[in-house]
Amino acid sequence: MLTATKTKELTLIQAINDGMRTVLREKDEVIILGEDVGKNGGVFRATDGLQQEFGEKRVFDTPLSEAGIIGTSIGMAMNGLLPIAEIQFLGFIYPAYEQIMTHATRMRYRSKGIFTVPLVIRAPYGAGVHAPEIHSDSVEALFTHMPGIKVVCPSTPYDAKGLLISAVEDPDPVLFLESLRSYRSVRGEVPEEKYTIEIGKGKKVREGEDVTIISWGAMMPVAMKAAEEAEKGGVTCDVIDLRTLYPIDKDIIAESVQKTGRCVIVHEAHATGGLGNDIISIINDTSFLYMKAPIERVTGADVHVPFWALENHYLPTPARVQKAIHNVINF
Amino acid sequence: MFVSEKRTNKDMEIQFPVLQVVNKDGKLVDESYKNEITEDLVRTFYRQLVCMRTLDRKAKNLQRQGRLGTYPPFEGQEAAQVGSALALDEDDWMFPTYRDHAASITFGKSYSILSSWNGRVEGNLPPEGKKILPPSVPIATQLPLATGAAMAAKFKGSKQAAIAYFGDGATSEGDFHEGLNFASVYQAPVVFFNQNNGYAISLPISKQMNSKTIAQKSIAYEITGVRLDGNDIFVVYFETKKALERARNGEGPTLIEAITWRYGAHTTADDPTKYRDQKESEKRRENDPISRLESFMKRNGYWDDAWIQKVHDEAIEEIEAAVRAMETMPPPDVNDIYDYIFETPTWTIREQKEQYMKHLRGEE
Ligand SMILES: Cc1ncc(C[n+]2csc(CCOP(=O)(O)OP(=O)(O)O)c2C)c(N)n1
Ligand SMILES: [Mg+2]
């Protein structure tokens, strides 16, 4: 995958930008479209400089219409292009839900593979930056529930670039979720050259013996902080960054929980119907007899992400994760 | 990418001329409203425009000082919002967006609306009995709602009408078209009030649509379409009144395109120099809605230095008081997160709330 190579320290958003630049350079069929992605370089600057470098034909602003963006991207993808469509915030993807659910995800099946949709949909998600209403939704489970679309959610710049390139190379639709609160707060070394990270593979980011913590995206720093704190009290944690939310890497989960026998799942999304439940079912199917305590979930409640004065009361915190670690240890 | 050569079809601009009552120099150019222009009306316009601009500038300052979160300024659009809101009847329904605080406040909402930009849901609440909806953030979604409220008014045989505010960008969403079509089919008493401020964040209208006007979109739905100078508070007020009258008389919906301009950024988080020349934007102040009204007042004997000074002083006082009220609001109540999802919370929410409250109290 990766040989000795030059690296640069990048923020999460710079790595995403770098990933897009890499594929734009490599393949003429790659195009970028969305609201304000051109001249403005995106409201978060994810596409900064790309229109200047690749021209308006390949990096272009669309009218304000998510159904239009995704519907036309599906059409273009079927006809030989490789669109990377930006949805300005995940909370504004809902008008496109129909296009994703009824066309992007089903075209291969409905045409027995004659028509396919190699489409990447990028969307920033999550709370914690005092954004206005709706801008903070974390609804990955609405998409992991759909057959026919893969969902990835990197937490580091390195993974972001590699997964973005894999998403573009993937022959099927991929939803690429970006933790907007990590955009500038998370930095890391990123190779300058092209590399890929396999979709469907998680990563162990901390080794421990007592508890497995599973999380992804924006919640990774929260999970890591809790693991550090727990270690001060003598409890060591395996921390798994899932990276891909569909299909989930069941082997990495099974391997870890069979060692620890205890598991805490951390996600920002609402509890009911959240991905934590799928993880529990994987543990149930693979590792039931290894478990020493009921699995704990630390998640958002079944309520809307509050207006920002109260958003910190919605978000999982290291303290809540530590409490869950305490519970699985002291069961 | 595939932007075609602009058609030079002038037909639509001729079919939908930009209506004006008072021109940019403050001259009355349409005599038909002469008798309806009273001192009382002129003073109401002026007072409200000044208050709204004072509020907007204050909000921008508060944001800069870290006393307010991200805020979407409306400076330049005051006449469109104030004029249309003043045309409403007490009992009408209003569906504003995030940029329409001047409309909401003119129609009766309190200045506490500002607190919504400090993440307080309380900022969304209308005074008792007023049908002013929380500002709509997802673009164009409020249009079908307004149509529905109007359909219900018609169903009940009431004289209520509804007004929906939206921007030029909003016309690209399906909800815009669906809202208009339903209104047309059911001849709902609703006014679709578009503020064409030339931009949707960074996207100029020339790239948003390939049609010359927004008003012409009314043709497809066979509803009345009106294009007007949105910086002329007189034409905004009179045309909105007429549209509401038609609506109440069963003559169906109207699409109004009010041409205006936002001088500033899309929101305080936006940097407009990335996509347009702000010096050019500042030149639009030649067409400022407040200066225009001032010129009109001077020309027509409504100008009174002492009264003008009083209006400005009172605006500052009122807004300073509102800011003090906002900054001394009691802290937000965590219970609110859980208590307004359903009338009766489900067991999941009850359990989650109980667990969280215990955690907050440091129990267990
Ligand atoms: C469905 C949806 N998509 C995207 C956004 C992000 N967004 C907020 S305002 C805006 C531009 C709106 O332009 P316009 O309708 O002209 O109104 P203006 O802001 O100029 O008042 C966009 C794209 C949103 N709020 N909702
Ligand atoms: Mg606009």
What is the terminal separation of chain A in angstroms? 42 Å
Overall mean pLDDT score of chain A? Answer: 97
What are the bound molecules? thiamine diphosphate, magnesium ion
The name CATH uses for the topology of the largest domain in chain A is: Rossmann fold
What is the helix fraction of residues of chain B, given as a range? 40-55%
Strand order across the biggest sheet of chain A?
3-2-4-5-7-6-12
Strand element count of chain B: 8
What's the CATH topology name of the largest domain in chain B?
Answer: Rossmann fold
Largest sheet composition of chain B: 6 strands, parallel
Shape of chain B: globular
Query: CATH first level of the largest domain in chain A: which class?
Result: Alpha Beta
- Number of alpha- plus pi-helical segments of chain B: 14
Count every beta strand of chain A, where a strand is a DSSP E run of 2 or more residues. Answer: 14
Pattern of helices and strands of chain A: EHEHEHEHHEHEHEEEEHEEHEHEHH
- Give the % helix of chain A: 25-40%
The CATH superfamily name of the largest domain in chain A is Thiamin diphosphate (ThDP)-binding fold, Pyr/PP domains
Structural class estimated from helices and strands of chain B: alpha/beta
Largest interface, Cβ cutoff 8 Å: A-B, 47 and 47 residues
Give the distance, in angstroms, between the N- and C-terminal Cα atoms of chain B: 60 Å
Which quaternary structure do these chains form?
A: heterodimer
The assigned CATH architecture of the largest domain in chain B is 3-Layer(aba) Sandwich
Keywords (chain A): Oxidoreductase, Thiamine pyrophosphate
GO molecular function (chain A): oxidoreductase activity
Protein name (chain A): 2-oxoisovalerate dehydrogenase
Pfam families (chain A): Transket_pyr (PF02779), Transketolase_C (PF02780)
